[in-house]
Structures are given as C-alpha cells and as structure tokens.
Specification:
This protein has 783 residues and is of the alpha+beta class. It has 18 helices and 34 strands. The strands form twelve sheets. Strands 5, 6, 9, 12 and 13 form a five-stranded antiparallel beta sheet that branches. Strands 16, 17, 18, 21 and 22 form a five-stranded antiparallel beta sheet that branches. A four-stranded antiparallel beta sheet has the order 2-3-11-10, with no helix packed on it.
C-alpha cells in the first residue's frame, strides 16, 4: 500500500521550530554547553555498526565543483567571525544543494551570537546524502543512501560474510571551500548519476532527497543540519516525505539522543544511514531504522526468531550491544508515544497503523511470529501486500478488530476512561475530630453518571482484591509524619470503603458516599491534612473471561486542621514529566495511579519496609538482609532511577523483594528537571523537609528511629561513593540522626551544602548538573 503524499513536506532542519527554541536558550545562556558531561547509560553508549568505521566514498574522485551558492550571512554577522576552535557552540544550516556530475552542498556555520564560524577543519566534517524510495506492494517507504561500503565481519561472531552498510563521506581540504565569513561549499567525491558499487543506487531527480551534516571536534554542535528537497523542482515543501518520528518525542525520555560519539543527534540524519539494506555483519541483524528501534525498545518482548528473541548489534571496536533485556517503561502497544500523530512536524506518524507490513510489525512480533513460514500467524505465511487485507485501516475482516489501530488498543486503559474518582469534601478535621470524607465515582463517558460502589459489579469483585477502593488520610502537609494514625511506620489512615469487600461507607442516596475516619486527628497537631481516594474497579476489559484491575487516576483533597485555609503539600514533581516515559504511572496492582500527591502520603519520611522484612521470605532472598530500607519518596525514586549507583533493594507486598540495581535510566541523571519543576529541587530546606528513617526499630514510635539528614539522603543516592559520603559527612551530613516523638529529625549536625552548592555559589547544583543543556526538553513543548 503506497503512502499518500502529504500536503506539505518537512522544512529544512535548522530553519524551523527546533532550532528557534534552541537558539533562544543559547542566546540567554551564553557559553553554556549543550551537551551534558555525564553520558547517558545504555542506549546512548551505543556505537552502532551503521555509519561507523569506514568513511570512504564509492567511485573515483572528481574535480571540485563550482556549483552551489554561498549561503546567507545570517543574523548578527556584522558582529564579526569566530574560529571554529573558539566558538561556544556551532549552529550548522544547509542553505542549498546543486546536483550534477558533481554535487555541491552550501552551508553556513554560526555561533550563539550569530557570528560566522570560520576555519572548520575538513576532517571534522562528514556528510550524508540519500533519496526517499516510495513503498511498493505494501512495503514502507525508505531512505537509501548513495554512500555505501562493503564491510567484513570481525572474527568470532555469527556473521561470516561482508555486508553492505550505508555511511558518510568525510570531507577533504580539496573539496571544502571556506568563504571566510561562515559560509562553506562542499563537493562530493562521486558522480551521483553513476553509483553502482557496492550497491547500485540510481539517481532520480523527481524523488525526495536529503543531505545532512555531522561536525566533529571539541566544540558542541546544535544539530545535524539536514536539508530535504526535490532536485527536479528544487522544492522543499509540498514534497513526498517520511516524517514518522522526530527528536521531540525521542528526547521526552532520552533528554538528548547523541550516538556514535555524541555527534549524531537528529532522527532526520539517522535515517540517511540506517537503511533497509544496511546490515551489521557480525550479528547479521538489520540496522534499518524502524526495525532496529522497534527491536531495541521491544527488548525482552522482541528480537529475531533465530536468536530466540535476542536482538544485538556489534558496534565500534567489536563491542556487543545486547538489547534482549531492555525493559520498556510502558506498554509496547503505545505506538503513539513515539509516532505522535498530533505533531505537525511528523505528518506520516500515522504510518504505524496505515502502512502495515511484515518488516515493521515483525520488529516487535518476531519473537513469537514468523511471517515467512506462518508460524504462530493464524493466516499462515504472508507477504507485505497481503497484510493490509486484515490489518490495514478500514478493513472489514473480523469486523476490523485486528486492524493495527485496534490491535494496539489497550483494553484496560480504554476501560479506565469510564471511571473518575471524586473527593467532594473533608470535614471534622480539627484536633480531636474524626475526619469525614465525602466522595463519588462517576462515568465521564456517560454524562458523569455516578456508580453505586455498594452494588455495581466493578466494585464487588472481591476475590483476590480485584475490586479495591480506599480513602487514605495523612497529616500534615508540611511533611507527612502521620504520627498517631496507628498505621505504622509512618503511614496514613487507610479506610476500605467497599462494603461488599469488607469495607464500611455510607450511601448518601445521591450518588455520593461518606466514610468517617476511625482515628482522630491528634491533639496539638497544627497545619493541614490530605485525603486521597485510591484503588481500582474491576471488570473483564478484553472479553477473555479474566477480571482485570482498572487503573484510575487517584483524587486528592486538602483540608485545614488549624490553618484558616488548607495548605497543599509542596509540589516538586509533575506527573506529566513522569508520564513522558511511563505514559500512565500506575503502581501497587493499579491502586495508585497518576498522582504523586497520593504517593507521598505513604512514601513519607518515616516509612520503611520493616513490616515486609520476614525471615525466610523472598524479601530476605533478594535483599540479603532483614535490615529495613527507607521508602521515603525523595530517596526511593532517586535510588530506583540511579540503578547501580544506588543499588536499591526494597521489599513490598507479599514480602517480595525488588532489586532495582540493574535499572538503566535512559535520560540523563544530571537532568533534575526531567522530573522536577524548575526551582523546586534545591536547596533542600532541612528545617522543613524531614530526613528519611533508615532504621525504624519499633515501627509504632519515632523516638528510636535512625535517620539521614535530607540533603545527604537525596544527593547520596547518586553520589554514593565512600569519598562522596565522607565529603557530605564533613559538611554537616548526618547518617545517624534521631527523631523526636512528632517524627521530626533530631541532629546535632547542620548541613552546610548550600554554602557551596546553593544558587549562585561556586558549585551551584543547577550549573554543575548542566540543567541549561536540557531546557528545550524540560519545557515539555511537544505539540
């Protein structure tokens, strides 16, 4: 099924939205470098086989061409010029391409002040050139590079024969013309009309083409300056294109994709080399962009048949990159996480559901389906041009149930749209009072009709806790110590409101329900409290006869204890930032969903997993100890994402152990604002924020707790070496603080972190974490 031509093609990269945003922050930040000093674990360490190694170009060298016009001088050029080795950052922009026997690329380099960058070393410039081949007989369109090499495999691997790989051409002094004002011309070394080896690539002027640049060297570079156009007409808009994903969607999780040494960071550049015909000769796996990326993200659930679901690539210096253990942070059926159809920069994002074929679909389904033999495929063997009959849009086969769009629907998520938790009021909250909470559950898809939680089926599936609905009440919002709740250690009051499942709430007869806390607000308590409605209805979402727990966003409401007006708990993290990676953050059996405000009620400073540390349990097996672990939110979340740096192991429901020491965070750990709202995460005010309990001893009281001071606890999750611990201890960090009866920390030490690491100080956290490098991503401007 051929792809439809869009109304408008992509703008040249470096001219549009992304560059405008980046230029803006660089002008404000001056010499701030774009790339973080801390390398991203896992994916960003990858040295993929395509584009690496040989940079030789096919064909006999020709003489330098004279085609191509000098690019515009750009804004700020009157301010002068700067040498490429002295620029704070380089902004490349391709300004034009002329094609003949000698293909000439004109481009301009500027720094953050708009000055022309001169003196680019030829060896620091690489160029790619490719054409877009339309899909035929059900296949996808694809980019095909004109520059290819035949690469032999290293010994000792599966592959035994040379394979074709697309690559780039490295500039030479004879072919690069520096105009001395920031404008350059480069002439490719081969005749684009006569590319025959090692792969024949016919030149077709009516096809969409792309040139992209890579600039190496010590100076940061803003982008890969891709330029997409149709040679026959010279058009850069209104042309056939293939924009199915862009940098914004990738970087929502990855903060800043930067492969092959960090200089390839643009999806429009990636596709010029990661073509269908490019193969890693050692593993014999394709490195075609769509197949490779799908396989990497599928991880445990994807891979190729012959390797038992194992997808791996042998990269630079023969390092094996095995992705068979990758754990995607959300349901793989969420195709639109990457293929964002609402983004006007990706007009072909809908290809995932409109252009269905064996290669694209098989990159996730290969581990259990073989379309060539028909194994585990109900229709048997199938070719690309047959896929659309059953899985294409608008098909009537099976009532349309197995179209790509419908097959990737997540029934439990769809069912969740039919439920909304509402906290309507919280009364009787003065000291000595027994809080009274009024709430409802309604159906937004049915004019907000209320459910009867005492009788309606989604709330009466009690076996195994399938249906669950609780009201939690915690105090105070200044910091949840939850002292006097009777739910220990450090837990809020927890009330079952499903009468059919052993709970106790009152039906008010108007679609609302009321529950009264069995625990009074302690005398002498001041401030405000919070109530949360959490849990899940239960039903058979996919019609397979199995009852599913349906995740529903929790509701939270605040009420005054002694405050005149209720004061909410501080908000330092936004759920939208969590869901950039997680799509829907639902934990503890789908009980706690999309509500950081609910999480912190239980994951309070005094909370540990002491009640789950049972001798002989899986908890002891996994963690290797019966000493309890803090589950304070500010420590736990940092530690989980820090993976091996924190070596965090904790025990949960059923005394089960959970080991997070192998977590690979795909963003940058130094990007605090990947999760935190700006201005909220430092310095931690230890007069307000309570340090976490690290040993609860008697869970019913605070006075025998051992705690860690708050800045030390948070920073220490990543900065966990003995040297770092000694540094923090020498500057007021306390690893053996106590707590008083109210749950507040007692320590003779005074953390002095802000003297060096506070705003404007020499080792300012925001500066040393290079937060400015992520501002485009942290703005969450993803259309």
């Amino acid at each position: 099924m051929p792809e439809a031509r869009p109304a408008e093609g992509p703008r040249p990269r470096g001219v549009g939205r992304e560059r405008e945003k980046t230029v803006m922050w660089l002008k404000h930040k001056g010499n701030t470098r774009r790339f973080a000093a801390v390398a991203m674990a896992g994916l960003l360490a990858l040295g993929l086989a395509a584009c690496e190694g040989d940079d030789g170009s096919p064909g006999a060298p020709g003489s330098p061409g004279g085609g191509g016009s000098t690019g515009p001088t750009g804004p700020g050029s009157g301010a002068g010029f700067v040498d490429a080795s002295q620029a704070d950052v380089i902004f490349p922009t391709v300004t034009g391409v002329t094609v003949g026997q000698q293909t000439v690329v004109s481009f301009r380099l500027a720094d953050s002040r708009g000055r022309g960058v001169v003196g680019l070393a030829p060896g620091n410039l690489r160029l790619a050139i490719a054409k877009l081949v339309p899909g035929t007989q059900g296949g996808s369109s694809y980019w095909q590079s004109y520059i290819n090499v035949l690469r032999a495999p290293a010994p000792g691997f599966v592959g035994t024969r040379p394979e074709i790989q697309a690559t780039t051409e490295t500039a030479t002094a004879a072919r690069l013309v520096d105009s001395g004002n920031g404008s350059y011309r480069y002439t490719f070394s081969f005749d684009i009309n006569n590319v025959t080896a090692p792969l024949a690539v016919p030149y077709e002027a009516s096809r969409t083409h792309r040139v992209a640049l890579q600039i190496d060297g010590p100076v940061p570079v803003d982008n890969n300056a891709s330029y997409t156009w149709e040679p026959a007409s010279g058009a850069i808009t209104g042309i056939f294109s293939r924009e199915v994903v862009d940098n914004d969607t990738c970087n929502a999780c990855h903060d800043g994709l930067a492969f092959h040494g960090g200089r390839r960071n643009d999806t429009q550049y990636c596709v010029t080399c990661h073509n269908p015909g490019s193969v890693d000769p050692e593993s014999t796996n394709t490195v075609n962009m769509s197949t490779m990326i799908h396989n990497i993200h599928a991880g445990r659930n994807g891979g190729v048949v012959r390797d038992g679901g194992r997808y791996f690539i042998v990269g630079y210096r023969n390092i094996v990159h095995d992705y068979s253990d990758v754990r995607f942070t959300q349901d793989l059926r969420n195709c639109q996480t990457c293929h964002e159809e609402s983004d006007t920069d990706t007009p072909q994002a809908s290809n995932w559901r409109t252009v269905v074929n064996a290669e694209a679909c098989g990159s996730c389904h290969h581990s259990n389906v073989d379309f060539v033999t028909g194994r585990n495929h109900i229709a048997g063997a199938a070719t690309d041009d047959q896929c659309g009959a059953c899985h294409g849009p608008g098909t009537s086969f099976a009532g349309g149930a197995i179209t790509a769009a419908n097959a990737h629907r997540i029934p439990t998520v769809e069912a969740g749209k039919r439920f909304q938790f509402n906290l309507l009021s919280v009364a009787s909250t003065a000291p000595g009072g027994f809080p009274v909470v009024t709430f409802s559950v309604t159906d937004p898809t049915n004019n907000n009709a209320p459910y009867n939680i005492h009788a309606d089926a989604p709330f009466t599936q009690c076996a195994g806790g399938a249906s669950r609905l609780f009201v939690d009440i915690g105090w105070t919002t200044a910091e949840y110590t939850n002292v006097g709740t009777g739910f220990n250690p450090g837990q809020p009051v927890q009330i079952n409101v499903l009468n059919a499942c052993g709970g106790n709430s009152v039906n008010n007869g108007n679609g609302t329900f009321t529950v009264t806390s069995p625990v009074a607000v302690p005398a002498g308590l001041t401030g405000s409290l919070a109530a949360a409605l959490e849990g899940h209805p239960a039903l058979d979402a996919d019609g397979n006869g199995t009852i599913d727990r349906i995740a529903v966003r929790n509701a939270v409401r605040y009420a005054p204890i002694t405050d005149t007006v209720a004061k909410e708990r501080r908000v330092v993290v936004e759920i939208a930032r969590c869901n950039d990676c997680h799509q829907q953050l639902s934990l503890h059996g789908n009980n706690r969903t999309d509500s950081i405000e609910t999480c912190v009620l239980c994951h309070a400073p005094g909370a540990t997993d002491i009640n789950r540390r049972v001798a002989g349990s899986n908890c002891e097996t996994v963690t290797g100890t019966l000493d309890d672990q803090t589950i304070d939110m500010k420590v736990m979340i940092h530690a989980i994402h820090a993976g091996p740096l924190a070596n965090y192991k904790v025990c949960g429901f059923g005394n089960a152990g959970h080991d997070y020491s192998d977590v690979v965070y795909v963003g940058r750990l130094n990007n605090c604002e990947g999760c935190h709202k700006p201005g909220t995460y430092y310095p931690v005010d230890s007069t307000v924020v309570v340090g976490p309990t690290t040993s609860a001893n008697n869970p019913a009281i605070y006075t025998d707790d051992v705690a860690t001071s708050p800045n030390t606890a948070v920073c220490g999750t990543c900065h966990s070496t003995d040297t770092a611990r000694a540094h923090m201890a020498a500057n007021g960090g306390d690893y053996a603080a106590g707590k008083d009866a109210s749950g507040r920390m007692v320590s003779s030490n005074l953390e002095t972190c802000t003297l060096c690491h506070g705003p404007g100080r020499e080792w300012d956290v925001r500066v040393k974490h290079n937060i400015g490098a992520f501002e485009v991503h942290n703005a969450r401007d993803r259309n």
